[in-house]
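Late entry, evening session. Most of the bench is empty. Finally got around to the prediction I had been postponing all week. Sequence below, unchanged from the version circulated by S.P.
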Amino acid sequence: MENKSFMDPTYVPEEYKVPFDLIELPSQGILYPDKKSSVKVEFLTANDENILTSPNILNNGKFINVLLKNKVKELSFDVDDLILGDRIAILIFLRTTGLGEEYSQLVIDEEGKVVEGIIDLTTLKTKKLEVKPDNNGEFDYVLDKSNKKIKFRFLTGKDENEIEDIDNKTKENNGGISTASTLRLERAVMEIDGVRDKMKISHILKSLNLLEIRKFKKYISDIEPGIEFNTTARIHGGGSAPCFLRLGRAFWYPEI
């Protein structure tokens, strides 16, 4: 029998292949070209420690992008085009299978004291997409005060990367004030009352009532697929406390 390694330079023996799993996407793939509801994701390995401990990657904020590009396989489009909720679902899988199911963070107990709580990451609920988008992958919303009709989409990893870059540059000339919230809204809104010119949309959004904009943002959050961060933590010594999962540095470095 011929030795495949001499015939194919990309050949990897079975015993050296990284194990993987198929991860169900909260969006169910409805918003992507191939409509596939799951993606192939490799488990974290010792080799990924190079990513987890690289100061340059950690400090420039691109850590998550590098990790996803290395772990998500056989995707028919750029991994940066995954919507944020799907990205989070994959990251939760990687953390749970690679570094353990338990995540420690500070919570508030029944007596109002700040204590250490333990969150079982396997109990986090998945919020699936239940509102059907149009053929462009956009959703409808009507502002309750101005009655303006809006079409919007969910942001992707690419959007967040670009927003972060723009925000970092503008903060220097804006007294340190972040404009990320406005930038996210402008990226998400694709049309207002038939207007699709991004410059005009930006001017319209900045003139709208704050309350109706907050209601609009809440609606986006309510229907956006992803992982439900409202959960319950186990408290040492017994008992539990409701809490909101915070993905801090300890998420990838539980030893600290």
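Two things to note before I forget:
The chain has a mean pLDDT of 89.
Residues 42 and 70 are 8 Å apart (CA to CA).
Will write this up properly tomorrow.
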